[in-house]
Structure formats: C-alpha cells, structure tokens
Design goal:
The protein is α/β, with parallel strands linked by helices and 350 residues long. 39% of the residues lie in helices and 26% in strands. A hairpin with a 2-residue loop joins strand 11 and strand 12.
C-alpha cells in the first residue's frame, strides 16, 4: 500500500475530497513510493512479462530493423535512445545482433531513459559487459544533442495517466476518484464537465459515447516528433493500443499477472491503458514526419523475418527446445495472443 502520508496527500489534492482520475493514477504510479519508481514490475515472478522477456527473437528483429535504418539512412554518429528499458533484455538482444555491423555501436551515443531505481540497478548489472562508460542513464529525455537519433520503446507509452469522459445524452461527464472516509477506500464518480475549453475540445468526439485521452502521453510523443523534425532520425514504438473508436474504457490494473481493480494494491500494481495510435499518428503528421510503418506486431515481426529466424533456431535445437521456440513465436504473433493487440508505429525524418 502507499504510505499513510501519501494517501493523505491524495485526499488533500482537493478540498472536496474528489479529484481527477489521472491525478490518482499519477500518484499510484509515480509518487516516491509508487509502483514505477520503487518496484520490480517485469518478469515471470512479477506483474507482467514483455515481448523481449518472452523470446530473444523479438529483440533480434528489432535489432536488424535498427541496423538497417542506421546503415542506409544515417551511417554516422548518432544517438541511440531506449525509453523504459525494463530489465535491459531488449538492449542486450539488439547489442548481440549488432555484432554483424560493428560500426553501429562504435558510432552510437547510448542513452537509456529510466526512472525506476530498482530497474536501473538491474540494467547496470545485466549490461555490465557492454561497458558502463558507453551508456548514459537519464530519468527524462534530454534533447541537447543535434545528432540524428534512433529512439525506440516497447510497452512504454501505455503507462501514462489518462482522463476518461462519458457522453450521456449530449452531456459530458469526467471520471473522478473519491475517498470514502468511513470505509477507508477509493471509488469512482462521474462529474459533469463545465469547462468551456474542455467542452470545445470534446465537441469533435460528440458522436462517441466515451473518450479516453492521455495528454502527458501525447505531449511526450510530440517532443520526440519536434526533435526528429529538427535533427533527423527515426522513432519505433511498440505497444498495445488502437486506432479506431473504442467501445469501452481501456484502463486496467495488473497484479501478479492478474487483472484487478485500480483501487486495489495501491503503489504495488501496474495501472495502464491502451495507446491511442490515431492521435500519435496525427501528431507525427502535424510535425511533417513520415509514417514508415503502422502495423500489428504480428505483421511487423513477420515482415522483418521472425519466421525465418525461428526456422534457423529450430534446426539447431532439440525437440524439447523446439516446442518452447514454437510457443514463444506463437505468443508474439498469434492474433489471439499478442499479435493483433500490439501495434508498431514507426515515424521518421530520414
């Protein structure tokens, strides 16, 4: 649980003892003892497992894609930036793949963006062989360098706080969180939107019953786009999300690999939402970036060679290992598993 002082801070955010959903999420995830700042969330023993942890082939395909784009479109000094490296597994797989093109890392200024102290310790340990002197860790994006950049992420943009709006008989309501003093627990309420500025913004979604938006996510991505527009580069992001109207809110909480209420296990569980790729694509276009790819994780991995890579691995391994390899690839590309839900967006100014 969040410490008592943190719960009091949540309650004091609003004298009426109710406050916006995104503020609640922000504290649960990013307070000093919040989930993303102090916990080890990734792995089979923890709350969720990501694609790089499922199979080395995921990182290898990403690595080949990065190598190709660098060699063909940059081929000089550049910034290599990973957003939210987790356990460092994806970076390790990319580094191993890059041995086929030694000049890649010889020209790279590596910057890992990580706010979680525990995960940074794991990254430093796992990437020790690479040479710490070549890796720079940062808590936030720092765009001082004018070199071209390759920026990539996997399951990073889903962790930004969201606001939720409900259209009921042409009246907009926003989801708020309230604390029940008697029962000492949180619950949600719908509060009518009266701000003219917000209502004007919501007007373009008046044909929808619900609308979910993450302003911090959009602003973060916009910073990346503005930087790429000015200094050249490419951004590859993979996450679960959508590009059409949604019928249900996507906010979810995960604790020990199981879905729970966002009000349970405060500070101890992951809270995330599906990425609205349509908005990210619009931001990229507004900044005059090219949309190189917007396809499912399934199509991206198949397009860039995961089936061929699987075939090579199968030829080298025992029957027992073959079953594991087949299951790993199935989990990544099967439409009923991660294949369709996860999307890959690539934008560039190259």
């Amino acid at each position: 649980m969040l410490g008592k002082s943190k719960i009091n801070n949540i309650k004091l955010l609003n004298n009426k003892k109710n406050f916006r959903l995104d503020k609640f999420i922000e504290l649960a995830l990013y307070a000093s003892n919040g989930y993303y700042l102090s916990k080890k969330p990734i792995g089979r023993k923890f709350d969720f497992i990501t694609s790089p942890e499922i199979s080395q082939m995921f990182g290898e395909i990403i690595g080949v894609y990065l190598l190709y784009n660098w060699k063909e479109k940059i081929n000089s000094k550049f910034n290599l930036i990973e957003l939210g490296p987790g356990n460092g597994t994806l970076f390790k797989d990319i580094e191993r793949t890059a041995k086929i093109l030694p000049n890649f890392f010889e020209n790279a200024n590596v910057n890992l963006i990580e706010i979680n102290k525990e995960l940074r310790k794991i990254q430093e340990k796992n990437l020790n062989y690479f040479g710490k002197s070549k890796i720079r860790w940062s808590k936030t994006l720092n765009f001082r360098s004018k070199l071209p950049s390759i920026i990539y992420s996997n399951e990073f943009f889903d962790c930004f706080p969201v606001r939720q709006f409900l259209n009921n008989n042409n009246q907009w309501f926003e989801r708020y969180v309230k604390f029940n003093e008697k029962e000492s627990k949180y619950y949600s309420i719908n509060k009518r939107v009266i701000s003219k500025k917000i209502l004007d913004y919501l007007n373009k979604y008046k044909k929808q019953k619900i609308y979910e938006v993450s302003y911090p996510r959009n602003k973060y991505f916009e910073r990346i786009c503005k930087y790429l527009k000015k200094n050249r580069g490419i951004c590859i992001l993979i996450d679960y999300g959508y590009n059409e109207k949604i019928k249900n809110f996507t906010l979810q909480a995960i604790y020990n690999h199981k879905k729970t209420s966002i009000f349970d296990n405060l500070g101890q569980q992951d809270i995330s939402s599906h990425v609205n790729f349509k908005e990210l694509i619009e931001i990229a276009k507004q900044n005059k970036l090219k949309i190189n790819e917007f396809i499912s994780q399934r199509d991206f991995l198949i397009k860039y060679g995961i089936l061929e890579r699987k075939k090579k691995l199968l030829n080298k391994n025992s029957n027992l290992k073959k079953n594991l390899i087949n299951d790993e690839v199935d989990r990544l590309i099967n439409s009923d598993r991660m294949g369709r839900l996860f999307k890959c967006l690539v934008v560039s100014n190259l």
